[in-house]
Amino acid sequence: MILETQGLTKRFGRITAVDSLDLEVRQGQVYGLLGPNGSGKTTTLGMILGVTNKTGGSYSWFEKGEDYRLRKQVGAILEHPIFYPYLSAMQNLRITALIKEIEKPDYAHALKMVGLYERRNDRFSTYSLGMKQRLAIASSMLSDPGVLIFDEPTNGLDPQGIAEIRNIILEIRGMGKTILLASHLLDEVQKVCTHFAVLRNGKRIFAGEVDAVLNKKNRIEIGCADLEKAKHILSNDQRVLHIEHANGYLVTEVDPLLTTQEINRIMMDQGVILSHLVFKRSNLEEQFLAILKESDD
Q1: Which of 68, 157, 266, 284 could form a disulfide with 161 if both were Cys (CB 3.0 to 4.6 A apart)?
Q2: Residue 151 and residue 55 share a domain
Q3: Within-domain flag for 14
Q4: Could you tell me what percentage of the chain is helix, strand and coil, using 3-state DSSP and rounding each to the nearest 5?
């Protein structure tokens, strides 16, 4: 176990920012903390990094407790990257290495990984927001930690900047690192994370694997000359979970075991020729909204 929290709680006066939070992050996972602003993501990361004092509960790194020395094995970016604006990227990284007492930091590797090696001698103040964020990732990688924590790493970036950060995170994931990522961008969590938890008002309302959640329900759009006959045929198949009319098609929610090829065969056997048959995989946004709705019920 890389990280475990039990009943982790933080109160600011009458406000409970994190409420009895239980999490388990294992080796090699890219674990997303998902939720709207104010859901407790940053506060949670602050507590497990020792930046914010917890009110209650506990957390444990590497099954060894809360000893601050364990956090030397963790690289982190919390909120906005802060560097000296009048110094170059290389100078800022050298200062970071001194502060963190990193032995033999590989500056060149860190800068090349985030695409800033050619700009290593330029002042931080000349960097775009995306470049500043990439330098922060390079800083977190200097000690070659086994665990990385990123708090809203694509916040405020344009589409190109978001894609650059996403590719860097995927590269780090490919190195076998464990990553804990806080974000409110559902699409980004879907593209980079293996597991995720949904926070709402400081409470964990769901946790699971990204692929398992996305594969729970798949949608297939069906078009033909006789939609009512097609609907009747499908309604007798237990693998078809829901059918509705939309935009001139039948939109079905089906068990993952039921494929488009199987549907086409069933229709052909019943004399129905399909003019439209499109598979649509569920996305995390749909599942996220469903999870929130279930928590309201």
Answers
A1: 157
A2: yes
A3: yes
A4: 35, 30, 35
Q: What is the dihedral of CA 40, 43, 47, 52, to 10 degrees?
A: -150
DSSP codes of every residue in 44-104:
HHHHHTTSS--SEEEEEETTS-S-GGGGGGEEEE-SS----TTSBHHHHHHHHHHHTT-SS
Q: Are 79 and 37 in contact (CB under 8 A)?
A: no
Q: Which residue's structure tokens are 């929130």?
A: 292
pTM of the model: 0.79
- Distance separating alpha carbons of residues 199 and 196, to the nearest angstrom: 10
Write the CA distances from 73 to 103, 113, 119, 143, integer angstroms. 13, 19, 28, 8
Query: Between the CA of residue 218 and those of 185, 279, 280, what are the distances in Å?
Result: 22, 8, 6
DSSP-derived 3-state class of residue 206 = strand
- Any idea which residue has 């039948």 for tokens? 250
List, for residues 94-119, the tens digit of each pLDDT value.
999 999 899 899 999 999 999 999 99
Amino acid identity, residue 194? T
Domain extent at residue 257: 217-281
> The tokens of 167 are what?
């590719």
Q: What confidence tens digit (pLDDT) does each residue in 20-68 have?
A: 999 999 999 999 999 888 899 999 999 999 999 999 999 999 999 999 8
100: tokens are 């963190």
CA distance 42 to 61: 18
Strands 30-34 and 249-254: unpaired
- In this structure, the answer to whether residues 39 and 91 fall within a common structural domain is yes
